[in-house]
């Protein structure tokens, strides 16, 4: 069986508008482009095509998610607000508080196409049409809440897809592993009281939105269904490997999911302007292989990887390609030109202060049911 692949040219067209990185227009920030722009993901799609790998993947055509599909997680008030914003001449803002989740007029349909893409990929894995799948969708989703967008995320792509496969295919227990540098707060909140969805988030300690602490373990009806592994800035492959071996893999084994979904952000990569971690393409390949091995033992290989953040236009494509190569078992001819130099840095090894963080996270394992 092959690996499913979701990409649509229109994901690259979602236009976050006139911005200076994360600074809104006005004041002294000279207008430039928004940090969340189409280049990182468009360039990953381009690399997957240029190296010939896309020809060997099973292409999945995404659908545009309907109001009915969105309202399974999101409120009617939020959806009405988005429609009003979308109808404005220059577009609007999806997050009501901070104002960084911008879109241009007509882009609401592209956000629906992102939801549809993740749903269609999840369905293909659940049905067994493909062995696993990579959804290269945009805008991202792991910060979005039922009543507002947040952190460049408009809709909760992964939670919506999980609800969909539960309804259509009877998949009950799902684990989400989030290695984006930011806390997967939206996924955590949406499944806070659901004992059948395990959310695991590895992230830079208190970067964004704010929390994601070890003590957040799920609601009263679902204690242990939420597992946070905050790591200190500067963590590299050593810390992530230790966290995987000591927390993520045992947690998955204990929970016994029927499918594993990865919220794959590449902003924990070495060159990212928005995070301070030190992962390279080899680390993302290794983490993907660990998830695949857990899935082989626990859930008939069922894995869905969904693209979240990642803001280095030149490096995200090589990290994403490594993940897709691991999923498909196909090595493309496109090697990461930075890898040889990056792996020689001795600071990638596990440091004592990072071990203390992981020791703390290990304590959450006893809560998992
Ligand atoms: Zn992120």
TrEMBL record:
Gene3D superfamilies: Histone deacetylase domain
Pfam families associated with the record: Hist_deacetyl
One GO molecular-function entry: histone deacetylase activity
Top-level taxonomic group: Bacteria
GO biological process, one term: epigenetic regulation of gene expression
GO cellular component terms, semicolon-separated: cytoplasm
InterPro entries: HDACs, His_deacetylse_dom, His_deacetylse_dom_sf, Ureohydrolase_dom_sf
Domain Histone deacetylase span(s) in chain numbering: 36-324
Family note: Belongs to the histone deacetylase family.
PANTHER family, per database record: HISTONE DEACETYLASE DOMAIN-CONTAINING PROTEIN, HISTONE DEACETYLASE HDAC1-RELATED
Name under which the protein is recorded: Acetoin utilization deacetylase AcuC-like enzyme
Biological source species: Antricoccus suffuscus
């Amino acid at each position: 069986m092959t690996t499913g692949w979701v990409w649509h040219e229109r994901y690259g067209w979602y236009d976050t508008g006139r911005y200076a990185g994360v600074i809104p227009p006005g004041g002294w920030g000279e207008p430039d482009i928004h940090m969340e722009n189409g280049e990182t993901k468009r360039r990953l799609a381009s690399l997957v095509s240029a190296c010939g790998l896309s020809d060997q993947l099973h292409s999945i055509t995404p659908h545009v998610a309907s109001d009915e599909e969105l309202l399974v997680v999101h409120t009617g008030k939020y959806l009405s607000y988005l429609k009003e914003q979308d109808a404005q001449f220059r577009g609007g803002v999806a997050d009501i508080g901070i104002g960084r989740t911008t879109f241009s007029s007509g882009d609401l349909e592209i956000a629906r196409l992102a939801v549809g893409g993740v749903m269609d990929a999840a369905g293909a894995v659940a049905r067994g049409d493909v062995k696993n799948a990579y959804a290269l969708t945009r805008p991202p989703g792991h910060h979005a809440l039922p009543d507002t967008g947040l952190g460049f995320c408009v809709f909760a792509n992964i939670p919506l897809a999980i609800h969909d496969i539960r309804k259509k295919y009877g998949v009950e227990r799902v684990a989400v592993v989030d290695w984006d540098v930011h806390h997967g707060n939206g996924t955590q909140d949406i499944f806070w009281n659901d004992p059948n969805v395990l959310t695991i988030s590895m992230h830079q300690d208190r970067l964004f939105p704010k929390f994601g602490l070890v003590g957040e373990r799920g609601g009263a009806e679902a204690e242990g269904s939420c597992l946070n592994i905050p790591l200190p800035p500067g963590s590299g492959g050593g810390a992530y490997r230790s966290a995987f071996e000591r927390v993520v893999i045992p947690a998955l084994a204990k929970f016994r999911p029927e499918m594993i979904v990865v919220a794959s952000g590449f902003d924990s990569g070495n060159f990212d302007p928005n995070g301070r971690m030190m992962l390279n393409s080899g680390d993302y390949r290794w983490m993907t292989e660990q998830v695949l091995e857990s899935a082989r033992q626990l859930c008939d290989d069922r894995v869905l990887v969904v693209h979240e953040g990642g803001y280095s236009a030149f490096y995200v494509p090589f990290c994403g390609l490594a993940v897709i190569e691991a999923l498909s078992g196909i090595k493309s001819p496109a090697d990461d030109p930075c890898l040889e130099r990056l792996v020689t840095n001795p600071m990638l090894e596990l440091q004592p202060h990072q071990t203390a963080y992981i020791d703390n996270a290990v304590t959450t394992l006893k809560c998992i049911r």
